[in-house]
């Protein structure tokens, strides 16, 4: 009989509730030998985050000052790259308690350190979260990256630590997202494009050429609109 693993979702906003629903669906559709995941609650610094919602487990404590429990596993339910970075910094000694979570309707494989998704070679690291995926082959996903639903990843795509790929994005083969890149909904990249660290791409934009670090890109074809300060440049998590 498959065992049950208790999990906690870090965050209690809209995306955290989406993750909770994905876990529930995973439990309904998992293979018999795969474990069941029991969500015992959320972490949030705002104790009233769930007041208007029913059917969710409670907020069991704040994020700041929380001491992870080695008996539990955690899923990061916060989207923005800078906040994913900050949470990873707070929990930097407990990354092994943040295994990746992947869910795909019709196919799913739960909390694993390494998984082959839909018979393709997909490597994803601690704290990453992938929902409703459509992947090609030989994909690499970094620590605490988020790829939202639904999306398409071409062959040899690399997604760096703390990145967020919004809904309905399509990344061409060999696209590289460096650390902390944020793609809003509906972004398309041409094959082989490299987007520099902590850049943001506006919703519906098409990236046709390499983007320098710290850029804001908008339009079809996408153009660098302005530069913005990189608040985490040079900081280390070690």
> How much helical structure, as a percent, in the residues?
10-25%
Distance between the termini: 39 Å
CATH topology of the largest domain: UDP N-Acetylglucosamine Acyltransferase, domain 1
Numbering strands along the chain, what is their spatial order in the largest sheet?
Answer: 6-5-9-11-14-17-20-22-23
Pick out the low-confidence regions: 105-119, 234-238
Structural class: mainly beta
What is the helix/strand order? EHEEEHEEEEEEEEEEEEEEEEEEE
Count of DSSP-assigned helices: 2
Spell out the key features of this protein:
2 helices, 2 domains, 238 residues, single chain, disordered C terminus, mainly beta, UDP N-Acetylglucosamine Acyltransferase, domain 1, Rossmann fold
Describe the structure.
This protein has 238 residues and is mainly beta. It folds into two domains: 4-100, Rossmann fold (3-Layer(aba) Sandwich), CATH 3.40.50; 102-220, Hexapeptide repeat proteins (UDP N-Acetylglucosamine Acyltransferase, domain 1, 3 Solenoid), CATH 2.160.10. It has two helices and 23 strands. The protein has helices at residues 14-29, 81-90; strands at 4-10, 36-43, 59-61, 73-76, 101-104, 107-109, 115-117, 120-124, 129-131, 139-141, 146-147, 152-153, 158-159, 164-165, 170-171, 176-177, 182-183, 188-189, 194-195, 200-201, 206-207, 215-218, 223-227. It is globular, with a radius of gyration of 17 Å.
